[in-house]
Specification:
The structure is a single chain. It is built from 27 helices and 29 strands. The protein has an 8-stranded mixed beta sheet with strand order 14-21-20-16-17-18-19-15. It is of the alpha/beta class and 742 residues long. The longest helix is centred in the C-terminal third of the chain and has 19 residues, at 509-527. Helix 4 packs antiparallel against helix 7 (153-165) and helix 26 packs across helix 27 (729-741). Strand 17 (374-377), helix 12 and strand 18 (393-396) form a beta-alpha-beta unit. The chain binds phosphoenolpyruvate and magnesium ion.
């Protein structure tokens, strides 16, 4: 009974031994294709491990008490089993066989040599390989774990245990039960030398958009770095078409590749902006296109079936990473779209909608928008909100992922594409279009685009997942979040069309207080007793210029860095006083779950002054602060000493102020890297200092809603909570759950 097998002699018949993924790879290696070296930890190894630790009996016992309809019961059972697997000892024979095979992988002899330190060992990918065909639904949804960039024997063994444990994630348990499969099952693991991909992608040996006519074409998609960004649809890849018979390149479409996933110098997989010269550059050389197509044609001939192949290029050499039969052509949702998009931009709020274009050039035209229309404009502002709610989709010329249109449409659940640069030119009034905001593309006419909807399993995490809100009406939909990590007041205060300061000028402060009391009160009630963090008004001088009274706003060259946030509130304390009066009334109503937070703060003296005003208003002088400027991040210890309830990264502004670039300038979007090394330093530093002082650390910018690598970084850095957009709660919760389980 072998616990570890090399590829020799193995092939597609060996699924029960080394799983589907393993069997496929072995088949390709033995057929002579350039597959990275690999070995296989058999299902027997898991069985031996389970027997040695008497796991099966214990696991079945846990399953007896499970309530499949209760997510917490699923989660508890999953955690208990996974913990048991992770903490169990791997039998020596199994461990030795794995260690020997690992040494052989890099050419070392299977004996201990002291001077080979873990540092010198190769990076490997550790991939779960399901052995039961009926687990297809789960494995195709990426349920079983894969760990990249693993190095050293101890890390390898612990990654293997994590793969074994991934047999029992809440989602897999749920699927198995739903499909009436036994929970007593097994798993194999593939260990493969890690490729440092400079480029990677997928190949279809048939055109999936047109399987009949396209059977003589090979379609290659390519991106920079690792393939994750492409597979997850985060990047617009290059697409090349090759004639299967002659090997000639038929067509080349060069995509705009804005991001790439790469291994950084510390061996951590990160997502980053692509350097300017590579964004529009052709990823594969013509020679590589032809060579890759030739390999893929051979693979199709080998299997005698159209194949879906993953590949990578390392130091100029092409590798085949994986191949599987193309059986589900119809499931490739994006491939169904016929025709080329007429406009592209950044998908800021996902979803698909078809409707008629209404172009808004100035505010007086807002009345044109009828329910279901597609709002096309240079950029939205708070005045647009009522018509945004009526629109089925929004497309703007300007803006990045943190602009007004992006933030509001996400909360309202409206598909939105920003930063197209030319929507108001290319799209014509009354034209029927389909907006695919999931992929940032606009098509002429009505186009059928299916959206993939995953079944959700709600999960609790140690790191709290809060929500960002601006509209009290959406609170109800968000109440499964662990609190509100940012309640923006700007939208609440401007629905009447009057600038908040105009209320003060007219001596109508009471009305302002009532609006805040009503709006915040609604949210606080829905979430009670979970915390609601309300951000003090943070309007830039240009944002509300069109409101009544806004014409008196001072003109500033750089409103983003101008008179807003706490600096303005202290100059004109009347609005802050109205806010705190509302807070007092909320407390009197028993809604003591509300805490106010101070935006754009840079000096402890500003905090001190705000506290004085609070005491004057007879409310607790307890505030949270937004960390939005390096000046604040780097002096966070002083704020902690002065006393704050929490510190929340406003990563939209913190990126702007740290990298020195305008967050709303669509030309700079590829430089707007919220995970720039400088940002990572600031995040880690602030989190560590907050921990020392028992201050809750959090983040409420767009970052965790958009980037898994950021979620991973922040959770591993020890952040207490992440506040995300309404549509991202489940996704981020699941990501955090996975990260915490690792
Ligand atoms: C931020 O800057 O990250 C933030 C949450 O505030 P706003 O986007 O409203 O400036
Ligand atoms: Mg901000």
């Amino acid at each position: 009974m072998a616990f570890v097998l090399e590829s020799k002699g193995l092939g597609k018949k060996d699924v029960p031994l080394i799983g589907g993924k393993g069997a496929n790879l072995a088949e390709l290696i033995n057929a002579g294709f350039p597959v990275p070296e690999a070995f296989f930890i058999t299902a027997q190894a898991y069985e031996e491990f389970a027997k040695y630790n008497e796991l099966k009996e214990k696991i079945l016992k846990i399953f007896k008490g499970i309530d499949y309809s209760d997510v917490n019961s699923l989660k508890t059972a999953s955690e208990e089993i996974k913990k048991m697997i992770i903490e169990s000892k791997v039998p020596e024979e199994v461990k030795d066989e794995i260690a020997d095979a690992y040494k052989r992988l890099y050419g070392g002899p299977p004996i201990d040599i002291e001077f080979i330190k873990p540092m010198d060992m190769p990076f490997v990918a550790v991939r779960s390989s399901g052995i039961m065909e009926d687990i297809k639904s789960a494995s195709s949804a990426g349920q079983y774990e894969t760990f990249l960039n693993i190095k050293g024997e101890d890390n390898l063994i612990s990654a293997v245990k994590k793969c074994w444990a991934s047999l029992y994630t809440p989602r897999v348990i749920y699927y198995r039960n739903k499909n009436k499969q036994s929970q007593d099952t097994s798993i194999s693991v593939v260990i493969q030398r890690m490729i440092s991909s400079e480029k990677s992608g997928v190949v279809f040996t048939i055109d999936p958009t047109n399987p009949v006519k396209g059977s003589n074409k090979i379609v290659i998609e390519a991106c920079w770095g690792l393939g994750e960004t492409l597979v997850q649809g985060k990047v617009e890849p290059d697409r090349y078409y090759v004639d299967k018979e002659t090997g000639d390149i038929l067509e080349k479409h060069i995509g705009k590749k804005l991001i790439e996933t790469v291994k950084n110098d510390y061996g951590i997989t990160i997502e980053r902006s692509v350097s300017r010269d590579k964004i529009d550059a052709q990823v594969l050389t013509d020679y590589e296109i032809v060579a890759l197509a030739a390999y893929c044609k051979k693979i199709e001939q080998h299997y005698n079936f159209p194949e879906d192949i993953e590949w990578a290029v390392e130091r100029g050499k092409i590798y085949i990473i994986q191949a599987r039969a193309v059986t589900t052509l119809e499931e490739k949702e994006t491939k169904k779209v016929e025709g080329e998009p007429i406009l592209e931009g950044y998908g800021a709020s996902p979803g698909v909608a078809t409707g008629f274009v209404k172009i808004i050039k100035n505010l007086s035209e807002l009345g044109k928008i009828q329910k279901g229309d597609i709002l096309v404009t240079e950029m939205t502002s708070p005045d647009y909100v009522p018509v945004m709610e009526k629109s089925s989709a929004i497309v703007t010329d300007a803006g990045g992922t943190t602009c007004h249109a992006a933030i509001v449409s996400r909360e309202l659940g409206i598909p939105c594409i920003v930063g197209t640069q030319k929507a108001t030119e290319v799209l014509k009034e009354g034209m029927k279009i389909t907006v695919d905001a999931t992929h940032g593309k606009v098509y002429a006419g009505e186009v059928a685009i299916e959206e993939k909807k995953e079944e959700e399993v709600e999960i609790k995490t140690k790191t709290q997942i809060k929500v960002n809100l601006a509209f009290p009406e959406t609170a109800e939909k968000a109440k499964h979040a662990d609190g509100v990590g940012l309640l923006r007041l700007e939208h609440m205060l401007t629905t009447s069309g009057m600038h908040p300061i105009e209320y003060i000028r007219q001596g109508r402060g009471e009305e302002l207080t009532k609006i805040i009391f009503d709006g915040v009160g609604k949210v606080a009630q829905v979430f009670y007793p979970k915390h609601v963090w309300v951000r003090s008004l943070d309007a830039r001088t240009d944002e509300f210029r069109h409101m009544k009274g806004g014409e008196n706003e001072p003109k500033e060259d750089n409103p983003m860095l101008g008179w807003h946030g706490i600096r303005r509130s202290l100059d004109e304390p009347e609005i802050l006083k109205c806010e705190l009066r509302a807070l007092k009334q909320l407390y009197e109503k028993g809604l003591n779950n509300v805490v106010w937070e101070l935006p754009f703060i840079i000096n402890v003296s500003e905090l001190r002054k705000a506290k004085e005003i609070a005491r004057e208003m007879e409310v607790p002088d307890k505030f949270g602060i937004m960390v939005e400027v390096p000046a604040c991040a780097l002096t966070i210890e002083e704020f902690c000493k002065e006393g704050i309830v929490f510190a929340s990264f406003g990563s939209n502004d913190l990126t702007q102020t740290t990298l020195g670039l305008d967050r709303n300038n669509e030309r700079l979007i590829n430089l707007f890297d919220e995970m720039h090394l400088s940002m990572q330093f600031l995040f880690k530093y602030v989190i560590d200092v907050c921990k020392k002082y028992g201050v809750e650390s959090s983040i409420c910018g767009e970052l965790p809603s958009n980037r898994r690598d950021a979620v991973e970084f922040l959770v591993k850095a020890g952040i207490d909570s992440l506040s995300v957009n309404l549509d991202a709660i489940e996704k981020v919760r699941e990501q955090v759950s996975e990260i915490e389980d690792q």
